């Protein structure tokens, strides 16, 4: 029986993978399967070849939302359904895995050594893995359905065909909760810029998805007595950082765009300008829907730089969004404040945090920054050598951050890139969605399990350094 | 005797200052004195009022080199001499103070608690403070004189007047070793772009000044057996990081400018292009001389961004340059590498360094970044509100980094700013030269000596954070 035996072997191989390796392999398999399915005539028209299908599948599984095809035109209803399924798999799947991995941080155990042993599963959460995964699925289903219903009844009123309206409501609700930013219309949500219901529903779904399941379930279980002291440090910190970032982004966009006379936001009324700035500030971390056209002509340089900073920071860990994460930023900020105050320990909200957390935050931030810069350099060099349409460095950097942080904002670059440039974006989306740390730990585990352990045991002599 | 009594009291007050406070107060006093002296007709012509004198004095004492007057035309020979004296005071003075403060890091003692006690002076270096300060002065004198002699004989051959040539050689040698970037000609050193002698002499002086006295004296005392093992970690790390940065900067500038067809460096021959890129890469950290005109027209966007990164990083601690310092960058990079490799400790060159060093590096980097952004925001808002000549955000950010990191590169912005904008630059130069940490510790010490001590003793409960 060669076939069952092969299946058995594959299963065996799969079981031996660590969680990071499982994540990488599964991600790649889903992308390959999605590519093959999307390229069939059942799912798409003739414009969508294997390359377009690969880009779209990667963009969907990594919940980025960058497109080189028109989702509404080039995909059939079946294709759009497959796309929605891939968004759910990518968004909720990684949400579940990162929430699972967070369990190890809580216990303070060495992540790498313990992941490949089955017994650690019991240590996860109060009621084991099953309960948590069911909780994530239930939360997502309820929120997406509520969002879809509100969008159907109050939001997309201008769509007369009821079936079409229902699908649009469901698709955008799924896309928003998963911070995917895919839409059925080529102008994203610009058509609904002044529609308060659509703005609010999408904003709420983006924020709840971005906060992550641990935070929303912490909030929900404390809903009757919502006091600060009942919430965990993680929940309080994530909510506080998110609120500050939303505020800074909104006020910043209003200021930069109002000061620059000849850009789009300064030409519309104050209430709409405020709502668009709020939407842009939230969508930049890292949903990627737009209600205002993004380009060098419509947004000022300083506005684009602000958006780039927001995109790079991104959503919260264990959520559906990307970026270096709000807690990483908070750890860096706390370290900065402690240093400036001359304190010995890093203190956040009257809780001392380990120096190791700050080291990890430094690693994530610097590595992500370098990765994005290399991406932009590759794009720049390829477009110069090929004599393609010349983009400014700002546009290319913006696109690379958008891909790496899985935002999906586009200033008109993606479609006009060569295949090599699009490949850079594909790799960037995949690496950015998994996170450099997860990816590297998957690789380290495969390459040499023992060397690292040995390295950690080598004691190097300590020496001081003047900084 | 009221006057001697007042002098005595002032002396008494001065003695009670801690080293950081002494540095701030002395810096301010030298700037004020320099302003009053430069504004007199003995030193300058009618174009130099109190405001211009203040800006020039600050720029000189902080060894920045930003100018709103023409040093060669608007200052008399006496004025230029006073300027050189201020450069020496600012450059070598802070070099001595930071080298002094580094002594405390070596001993691992708590800086803040011990600075105000005279007895710590003996702990500094091998032979006490006096020897170190004499060493710094001697090194500077020898190097500046050698530089001046070479420039006089082989460099500035085109100047026929011998007195003029001697003064130009001495002034530029002083300016280069102190990383000040002041020149006597309005086009900096563009006139000598293809003069190899001038390029090499200025480069060597910049680099030696930027490495700092500890490194140069370490190299000098090991000159007979220059092996890596004899040098301290600090020396090896500073030299290695500096070399890597010089290489990245040179190669980066060659690439960015060669790829962008219509910018200056791509229009000149390869040998000159390489020399100009090397000079630009070194001068950006943080001397500020130019052999190529800097503007949005002559340099590409990506080239300007590369220069901004180099400027922000700057020279080495205990040197005459500014920026966040090479060791700060090295500490962040080492933390990144350790995190990515999954190591528990931060290891540089087989030496384990304390987590606290990384925390300090994070504090310096993030605080400097935020300070520069606030400066750029203030410049942008003031120029928008005043309806001044509109600069792009990139130009304003470039100018703010140039001031904060005491580089002195100018893309044509400084002279065209309002007094408010120039005030932002003055404050930026002063804060940037002292460093945010030194300035804040001076303030903390003045405000409340005891509170911090108490704060450090409060034990906060530890809590984990997901990053
Ligand atoms: K997205
Ligand atoms: K300078």
TrEMBL record, chains A, B:
<keyword id="KW-0406">Ion transport</keyword>
<dbReference type="GO" id="GO:0008324">
    <property type="term" value="F:monoatomic cation transmembrane transporter activity"/>
</dbReference>
<feature type="transmembrane region" description="Helical">
    <location>
        <begin position="166"/>
        <end position="185"/>
    </location>
</feature>
<dbReference type="Pfam" id="PF02386">
    <property type="entry name" value="TrkH"/>
</dbReference>
<keyword id="KW-1133">Transmembrane helix</keyword>
<feature type="transmembrane region" description="Helical">
    <location>
        <begin position="81"/>
        <end position="101"/>
    </location>
</feature>
<feature type="transmembrane region" description="Helical">
    <location>
        <begin position="357"/>
        <end position="379"/>
    </location>
</feature>
<feature type="transmembrane region" description="Helical">
    <location>
        <begin position="21"/>
        <end position="42"/>
    </location>
</feature>
<keyword id="KW-0812">Transmembrane</keyword>
<keyword id="KW-0472">Membrane</keyword>
<feature type="transmembrane region" description="Helical">
    <location>
        <begin position="237"/>
        <end position="255"/>
    </location>
</feature>
<keyword id="KW-1003">Cell membrane</keyword>
<feature type="transmembrane region" description="Helical">
    <location>
        <begin position="133"/>
        <end position="154"/>
    </location>
</feature>
<keyword id="KW-0813">Transport</keyword>
<dbReference type="GO" id="GO:0030001">
    <property type="term" value="P:metal ion transport"/>
</dbReference>
<feature type="transmembrane region" description="Helical">
    <location>
        <begin position="48"/>
        <end position="69"/>
    </location>
</feature>
<protein>
    <submittedName>
        <fullName>Possible sodium transporter, Trk family</fullName>
    </submittedName>
</protein>
<feature type="transmembrane region" description="Helical">
    <location>
        <begin position="423"/>
        <end position="447"/>
    </location>
</feature>
<feature type="transmembrane region" description="Helical">
    <location>
        <begin position="303"/>
        <end position="324"/>
    </location>
</feature>
<feature type="transmembrane region" description="Helical">
    <location>
        <begin position="391"/>
        <end position="411"/>
    </location>
</feature>
<dbReference type="GO" id="GO:0005886">
    <property type="term" value="C:plasma membrane"/>
</dbReference>
<feature type="transmembrane region" description="Helical">
    <location>
        <begin position="197"/>
        <end position="216"/>
    </location>
</feature>
<dbReference type="InterPro" id="IPR003445">
    <property type="entry name" value="Cat_transpt"/>
</dbReference>
